[in-house]
Amino acid sequence: MHASITAAYLARYRSAAAESPVELLPLTGAQRRFLITRRLAPRSRSDLAPLFFAYPGGTLDLDRLGRAAAAVAAGHPALCGAFVTVRGTPVLRTGGPSVEVAPIAVTPGGSAEGALREALLDWPLDGPALRLLVAREPDDGEELLALALDHAACDEQSIGALVGELTEAYRQDEPPASALGACPDQRAVATFREAVELQLAAEEAAAGPAARAHWGRRLGALTGAGGGAAKAAGVLTERLPAVEGGARSALFPALLDAVGAAARRLHRADGPLALGYPWGGRPPGAPAVLGCFLNTLVHAVPPQPATDLEALCDDWWDDLDHAGTPFDEVVRAARAAGSPWSGGLDAMLTFEDLRRRPPLVLGGVPGREVHVAGRPLAAPLAVSASHGDDLTVRLAWDSERFPAADAEAAFGDLLAVLRRHL
């Protein structure tokens, strides 16, 4: 009989929670993977989700920003307490606000981007869930704000909600006595628990025999070229026209094929490569709490590019029918089907619809979002695509593994495939 990974986790969690002197909350499959990964590779901070916003000099009041961050945190268990491992079991241990607001000094000859990047790399293993760090550009005095979250505390939906709440809390700037109650709010704790329990029930239900058979067929030949977290050398960027109308339904499969072309160029592997991408959200009826409710789906990159985008779309839709199967169960299914794949990703694709996220308005000024290169990667090759007024595609790579010339050639392959499909 197949014992699900989710059921085994719940048994361990209940045992740990029953013996704990403080309240422990359960975690989703994605949150558990973040905690396990960071303890296996404590120097890799690819489990952070940072956004960067530029403001004119003198816009930001750090004391006011700190009050706003504390007020927002009080309503979210993911920002109150710590993501920890108790008796080998990943949990959220409730406590006080898990936020930090701080100025970051820029060294002579340095830049605000470089200072913030180094500060984020120095994030403690059990550091706060939310950090708001501000550095000033030496030349023009522009202020650069890093809004960085432990990925266990957020997904795309969570980031949009947090940005909106932080904007409002900064605008209102209520005194701490009226803005804050106990952290976390006990009603919010109950809501968080409900959302996670619904997610875990959905994960267990999605790990049945049909789902295991599907992923065994799809990934049984997967070998992988040796993926995993990596350092980044830089970022290559291209802006393409926004995709509108009926073509939008084929955008993501086109991106899968395009990233696959880049992965083939860099890895030069004979067998299928593992391309991961986050997908999903909260189950129907689940409360909209802060946290990571995504799953990592895996696309087996074939040795040759797709000649029929429609067929690739069909395969992708078949995968989405089983999108709730937890990643660990997918790896187990692939290995049961004969794959030696360890679960390391050779490439990662993330996609963000910028039209779903409000601007971060502080002091009446909307922040100008900027991108900071050089951050750690969840895979040796990472491609991010953001869709708003245009389609912006960025490729980052492991400089210790791939020469810059190869990365540039791979980016050329990616763009050629993408333009052909779109």
Q: Kindly state the percentage of residues in helix.
A: 25-40%
Order of H and E elements: HEHEHEEEHEEHHHHEHEEHHEEEEEEH
Beta percentage is 15-25%
Oligomer: single chain
Mean pLDDT: 90
Number of helices: 12
- Major β-sheet profile: 6 strands, mixed
- Structural class of the helices, strands and pairings? alpha+beta
The number of E-state strands comes to 16
How would you portray this structure in words?
It contains twelve helices and 16 strands. With 422 residues, the chain is of the alpha+beta class. The strands form four sheets. It has a six-stranded mixed sheet. Strand 15 and strand 16 (390-397) form a beta hairpin. It is globular, with a radius of gyration of 21 Å. The model has no long low-confidence stretch (mean pLDDT 90). InterPro entries: CAT-like_dom_sf. This is Non-ribosomal peptide synthetase. It comes from Kitasatospora cathayae.
